[in-house]
Amino acid sequence: MxxxxxxxxxxxxxxxxxxxxxxxxxAISKAxxxxxxxxxxxxxIVHIIHNAERxxxxxxxxxxxxxxxxxxxKLAMVDTVRKAKNWQIKWNAIYTEHETYIQELSYTVDExxxxxxxxxxxxxxxxxxxxxxxxxxxKNRLFLYVEHGIPRNTNHLxxxxxxxxxxxxxxxxxxVLERQKRMWEWYLLSRSATTVNxxxxxxxxxxxxxxxxx
Length: 214
What we know:
Blueprint: H1 2-11, E1 19-22, H2 26-35, E2 40-43, H3 45-56, H4 63-73, H5 81-102, E3 105-109, E4 116-121, H6 124-138, H7 144-148, H8 155-171, H9 177-190, H10 196-202, H11 205-208
């Protein structure tokens, strides 16, 4: 809940956009939908592919994991409406064929009575990945980019903003929190249309430079 409110406070200063392209963090999409009634969400394709590769394994994974992972990797080649439809048709066929395995459950059984004590997914990571893809398709958050010509990933943000910002913080990690915030604000100011005068007016100098009564 705290993360959701943090994103809400961050985004509420922005005029309502038509689209939001984001990674899989649910707080971002929830905050966006809470703020803006008509916004549409596009999930970052790069994050989807990397998430599948991480969860489905790279060293001798089960055959179904390989089939699902290889098809998800083909998202990188989808750049037209026709390719998107063909990808979804193939995905539906793969999921239908292997649904029993994907949704298979394992059980904890009392050895003496034979009573089932609990049940849990037999292939939890595979199940999570497949359920996520199905949810994105159902909510139309996978292929908005081919319909509307918007970016399909957050690379321009990750590489253009976040990466330099992380490097800046690493080089000045000794600063107290308030001065770190000012440093981030000045950096973001340099990447925005906000004027220096407007930025200075927004500063709280009492917090930045507290008065010493002594």
